[in-house]
Amino acid sequence: MPCNTCVTATSQPTQMKDFASANIFTWCTNCGNYGINAAVRRALVELDIKPCETITCFDIGCNGNGADKIGGYTFHGLHGRVIPAACGAALANTETKVIAFGGDGGTLGEGVGHLVHGVRGNYNVTFILHNNLNYGLTKGQASPTTKKNMKMDSSPDGPTSEALHPVRFVLALESTFVARTFSGDVKHMTKVFVEAIKHPGFSFVEVFQSCPTYNKQTPHEWYQQRVFDVSTVSDYDPSNRARAFEIAEDIENKIAIGVLYKDKNSVPQSARQQNRAKLNTQLVEETRQYPIDTLLKAFR
User: What is the 3-state secondary structure (H, E, C) of the chain?
Assistant: First the structure.
């Protein structure tokens, strides 16, 4: 259901300027969010998806400062709660591409239950996890992915608990699409985001993101020296979940990125609803306005 602007421009291919924003970027210099923002826009352009055909949903955190830095429909949720909002948008209009963003803190801390059921329900959402190993917006506290004994400003001795392994966790939830990339390589991020957006179902993409202010341990260069794309492995089969577990395990020395797992037979949540199989309308088109004047008078 394109808007009037897109109706008049359907013959024109999508361009980067279509997703431009007049707002000034406020991230720290060298923050990985700059690259992620550029890669998402490049992916949408490559797929010729117009701003009125997508909605980008942002969680609280440094990622959330991007909510007004991209053209089109955007939604800024509560901390850790962006996934259910994105899933609702995907159900309301299946013709809209929904892309959601969350940090490692909000997603694997406050919102971990929402991640579980987003994956379990296989909603048609592309979810991009900004993993900078800390709560960056609130001054560098340790997050669920902060490495054990990694010294942070608010925990000078570092966390004493083992860090969560996001890909291992999501693969164990019977996810239908799992990928990894890192914020220092815009071309690679773009390639991965394109595949994630095309996938029918919940696409989980972990982005190893640099945080130049609070995480000095893993800058762009640290990942550049360690990552390799699974597409370069001659016998790698992304439909083999066990192999994905194996190749994704190492996140210290030889780090696998790219599309790690993809279920070619994935059926998204919206297509599972048999009660809507014969309907041609979208849920958003079925909403109605109800007068409440009589109700309001009862309380006057």
Answer: CCCHHHHCCCCCCCCHHHHCCCCCCCCCCCCCHHHHHHHHHHHHHHCCCCHHHEEEEECCCHHHHHCCCCCCEEEECCCCCHHHHHHHHHHHCCCCEEEEEEEHHHHHHHCHHHHHHHHHHCCCEEEEEEECCCECCCCCECCCCCCCCCCECCECCCCCCCCCCHHHHHHCCCCCEEEEEECCCHHHHHHHHHHHHHCCCCEEEEEECCECCCECCCCHHHHHCCEEEHHHCCCCCCCCHHHHHHHHCCCCCCEEEEEEEECCCCCCHHHHCHHHCCCCCCHHHHCCCCCCHHHHHCCC
| Average confidence (pLDDT) per 10 residues, the chain, 300 residues | 52 90 92 96 97 95 92 92 96 95 95 97 97 89 90 84 95 97 97 98 97 90 96 96 97 97 95 89 88 89
Which top CATH class is 28-297?
Answer: alpha beta
List the domain boundaries for the chain.
Answer: 28-297
